[in-house]
């Protein structure tokens, strides 16, 4: 268990103050970001999408205004924003370390790791418009990404490249597409984010683009989304209207590469098994190949991932499930899966409740009941799942959840997670008066 250094009266560095405030241990990357005041270069004028930094003096406030309590997971500390509601956040680990950077979407609350360091995340932001699947970004279209000639983004990106020079990041600058993605993966730069882009690209069909499909009069938008996710489900009449007459259905279907998508997902779950989108795509691929047992195993793993890790809109699995429902749960129901374990059965039954609000309420109660009987470390994880497996109902429930999370984290020796949960609780009280 890492322990933070205590602030010295002589130095009073930003690292000392942040570590003392949150009882955490900052990575060297973050220490340099704060103490060398690199954050000043992210003043809203730089060319990157995440171009506005939160000054450290605001982060150490009792209730930082950047935190979105209840919506943002309680182990997230936001440090950079695109000024449109999305954030790059430091994720505090169980050992009190602070290093991983995640992208948190305000629309829906989804999140995805962008790197194990801030330099990786900034570099990914710098190059993601050159990566496969970049047309399926949230909020900002790929066409709005700034190029390398931007007058002010150079210093921020150069800092990231310099920090990554032990992985020869400067050599990647001329690359693009799958070549760039492959090199970033081989050099362990922003792997989860890059692999998600590659999955999106593998399943994207250039013959069935959004622009041409908008011209169709389609009564069932969910059916359309299912067809875009798996072109084999696409209505032949729709295909006939948007592709050339000399293009066969098989040629259209051949544009999707399910084998590649599954290969990328297998790589992702090796180091990031908490990401639901990888299990979802793997399970569906096995299901469509007739491997029911393998599909069920993958979907069961997906059940244990927060719904906020499924990237459902970007990967297009949202056409298969109702509001607030996990794709993995929906597919298991379709396959007629029946859990043998009583705990999993209780959870699965909660996920099958038709009403979205009732479902969230049942899931929260399920994990809260388990947490009350569990040892501290497990109790902390269960209390977190009570709030962020599906999201909790009603909003008032987060007041108690954040308090329970902080108490359990303290008991487990997770001092940084406890302090950050209490900070989220302060923000919840300040924002909602609860």
Verbal overview:
It is a single chain. This protein has 434 residues and is an alpha+beta fold. The protein has 21 helices and six strands. Among the domains are: 14-203, no CATH class; 355-434. Strands 1, 2, 3, 4, 5 and 6 form a six-stranded mixed beta sheet that branches. Strand 4 (87-92) and strand 5 (97-104) form a beta hairpin. This is Tetratricopeptide repeat protein.
Structural class by SSE content: alpha+beta
Q: Return the string of H and E elements.
A: HEHEHEEEEHHHHHHHHHHHHHHHHHH
Report Rg: 22 Å
Kindly state the percentage of residues in helix.
40-55%
What is the averaged pLDDT score? 91
Main sheet? 6 strands, mixed
- Poorly predicted ranges (pLDDT <50, ≥5 residues)? 6-10, 139-152
Distance between the termini: 33 Å
Beta percentage is 5-15%
Count of DSSP strands: 6
Form type: globular
Q: What's the helix count? A: 21
InterPro entries: TPR-like_helical_dom_sf
Protein name: Tetratricopeptide repeat protein
Organism: Stieleria magnilauensis
